[in-house]
Design a protein that fits this description.
By secondary structure, this protein is of the alpha/beta class. It is built from 12 helices and 14 strands. Helices cover 34% and strands 20% of the residues. The strands form 3 sheets. Strands 3-4-5-6-9-10-11-12-13-14 form a 10-stranded mixed β-sheet, covered by helices on one side. A two-stranded parallel sheet has the order 1-2. It is elongated and about 70 Å long. The chain binds S-adenosyl-L-homocysteine. Residues 111, 115-116, 154, 158-159, 189-191, 211, 253, 255, 284, 286-287, 330-331 line the site of S-adenosyl-L-homocysteine. The site of S-adenosyl-L-homocysteine (SAH) has 17 residues, from strand 10 and strand 12.
Length: 346
């Protein structure tokens, strides 16, 4: 039987283990300190019995970094390999004096969005909580002593299509005795995959982002096929009920595609859709990838669209593209030979 990963356990799970093993509850803080900070703590403070249990029943290893690509703009892309040999990408993005780590939640993705490179590789499997937490710990080790990075669940995969494991990972991140990341330091981005909203109601109150990309259902369905099943009205209705959004601002991600979704009609419909909602529109210029059909708008177009939204009194931010030279930007995460050739310029 394979051992359970120590990085998949929440604090409640560890408490339960201590109880089963007749260990003092005081061992908990040493156990967690050793696991997440300094392993030497274990030798000094845990009983031999507990050390033996940890060694025999738990897998204490992290996933492997199989490749690292660094962009001159400071973005670092890790190719992370799991025990079964499958790989995902994890991206560290510098932002002022802090880093954000973009975590993958699945190997590949089933959503098949027409503008996304990840979708073209198909879906392999969900990641487990330990594989999600593992990506974070690898990035943290890489940063050595730098301030803890904040998290966006915006790598490969649709997090709400793997909601239970993402929820477990989020609890591990959020727990002050485990990774101690505040809810405001975590953002989950979704296409609006409604079956995952039930789990979302049980999440700590992290930030939420919706990949909108068009205020029109027909057009949005061309970009995000699951919109046919879960159209905008249904998604926004469910968002209303979410406790996670109480007193919070919804981020609305809007992919900017040349000649497609940047007209005045789009501005008007978007304004109408977001009227009376606490939302900020995050504009993302389309990042091209080998073989993509869509085009990135010219910089003037990007600014023009932004200004039209601002004139409507919407709150707008423009995402600076980072890491596109190493295919680490949004929608460019895919592992295959083509990507490798592209990256090395051959
Ligand atoms: N599946 C979730 C999580 C991934 S987030 C979601 O879609 O929200 C990745 C973000 O990058 C999404 O907003 C996605 O729409 C955007 N994206 C995907 N492909 C892109 C591309 N080629 N250029 C720019 N942004 C892209």
């Amino acid at each position: 039987m394979e051992n359970t990963s120590a990085y998949s356990l929440t604090r409640d799970d560890w408490n339960e283990l201590l109880r089963q093993e007749n260990q003092s509850p005081h061992a908990l803080s040493y156990l967690l300190d050793g696991l997440y900070r300094d392993r030497a703590v274990w030798g000094r403070h845990l009983s031999n019995h507990l050390l033996k249990t940890l060694a025999e029943r738990f897998d204490l290893t992290l996933p492997l970094i199989s490749q690292v690509l660094e962009s001159p703009d400071g973005t670092v892309k890790f190719q992370v390999r799991f025990a079964d040999g499958l790989e995902v990408e994890t991206v560290l993005i510098p932002f002022h004096k802090r880093y954000t780590v973009c975590l993958s939640t699945q190997v590949g993705c089933l959503m098949n969005c027409s503008f996304c490179y990840t979708g073209t590789q198909g879906f392999k499997r969900n990641l487990s909580a330990q594989e999600i937490v593992g990506q974070y710990l690898l990035a943290m080790n890489w940063l050595k002593g730098h301030k803890k990075p904040s998290i966006v669940f915006m790598g490969q995969g649709e997090p709400l299509h793997n909601a239970d494991e993402v929820l477990r990972a989020t609890r591990i991140f959020n727990d002050p005795q485990l990774l101690d990341l505040g809810v405001r330091q975590m953002t989950l981005s979704t296409v609006g995959y409604l079956p995952g909203f039930e789990a979302l109601a049980r999440f700590p109150q992290i930030n939420l982002a919706l990949s909108l990309h068009s205020p029109f259902d027909e057009e949005r369905s061309r970009l995000i096929p699951v919109n046919q099943k879960f159209p905008l009205r249904a998604v926004f209705e469910r968002l209303e009920d979410l406790e996670i959004l109480r007193r919070k601002i919804l981020t609305v991600e809007y992919l900017m595609i040349d000649g497609f979704n940047l007209s005045l009609a789009h501005v008007d419909a978007l304004t109408e859709l977001l009227r009376d909602r606490r939302a900020v529109v995050n504009l993302i210029p389309f990042n091209p990838f080998p073989g993509s059909d869509w085009k990135r708008p010219a910089p003037e177009k990007i600014l023009e669209f932004r200004n039209m939204l601002v004139a409507k009194k919407l709150r707008v931010t423009l995402r600076a593209t980072k890491g596109d030279d190493i295919l680490a930007a949004c929608g460019q995460l895919k592992i295959n030979k083509l990507a490798r050739n592209y990256e090395s310029g051959t």
